[in-house]
Amino acid sequence: MTNLDSAFLLVMKSARRGCIFVYQNSIYQNHVLGASSQTPGKDFPKDGSVAFIKLMRLEDSQSLRDELEVYKMLAEAQLGNTMRAPRLLGLVRDESGWVFGLLLTYIHCKSVTLSHAVKPGTSSSLRQKWAAQLRSIIYQLHKAGLVWEDAKPEDFLIDMNQDAWIVDFGGGYTEGWVPKLAGTMEGDQHALEKMVGFTGI
């Protein structure tokens, strides 16, 4: 077991229906196993908190390693509440120890991304707020030595308080948003300016 595993271990045992997870001394059930990594779920621990489960496929192993490293660095950077990014709460494992999911901070957003939130009728004050939050989040990422890589409006969620959250640290490249500079801070800055322009500011 690696140090990263021990720091973010979520013990899971199989059950007749779904799975039973042991998380912070509370047991709760999940019924979204078998879906692809594009189909997230939501869990309700007995302590009343809510967690987001991101399932991973076998071919997502490199993406999983990339995300774990980012969440490790986020934890070590001890960024404040203004850094609206999910935190890693645990790993979802089967009985053999195979990791097939991440347990993350749940963002109350009704799946609204920046690309869906920006509409013709969106107020100027909201657009300015989101643009400022995008800049702040990317600045804090870079200050912590992290690169976002696959930067695009679909990877910013807008929560119930109309605040922007950055998500998806699995790497990759989306044509049209990040040039050949993808995977660099310069590439992030290029994509950031395009997203600020997308807000209409």
Describe this structure in words.
With 201 residues, this protein is of the alpha+beta class. It folds into two domains: 3-105, Phosphorylase Kinase, domain 1; 114-198, Transferase(Phosphotransferase) domain 1 (Transferase(Phosphotransferase), domain 1), CATH 1.10.510.10. Helix content is 30%, strand content 20%. The protein has helices at residues 3-7, 61-77, 114-117, 124-143, 185-198, and strands at residues 11-14, 19-23, 26-30, 41-43, 51-55, 88-93, 99-105, 156-158, 164-166. It has a four-stranded antiparallel β-sheet with strand order 4-5-7-6, with helices on one face. A three-stranded antiparallel β-sheet has the order 1-2-3, with no helix packed on it. The longest helix is centred in the middle third of the chain and has 20 residues, at 124-143. The radius of gyration is 17 Å and the shape is globular. It starts with a helix and ends with a helix. 32% of the residues are buried. The model is unreliable at 1-40 (pLDDT under 50).
The CATH class assignment of the largest domain is: Alpha Beta
Mean pLDDT, all residues: 73
- Structural class, from helix and strand content? alpha+beta
N-to-C SSE series?
HEEEEEHEEHHEEH
Query: Judging by the overall fold, what is the CATH architecture of the largest domain?
Result: 2-Layer Sandwich
Helices and strands, with pairings:
Blueprint: H1 3-7, E1 11-14, E2 19-23, E3 26-30, E4 41-43, E5 51-55, H2 61-77, E6 88-93, E7 99-105, H3 114-117, H4 124-143, E8 156-158, E9 164-166, H5 185-198
Antiparallel strand pairs: 1-2, 2-3, 4-5, 5-7, 6-7, 8-9
Helix pairs in contact: 4-5
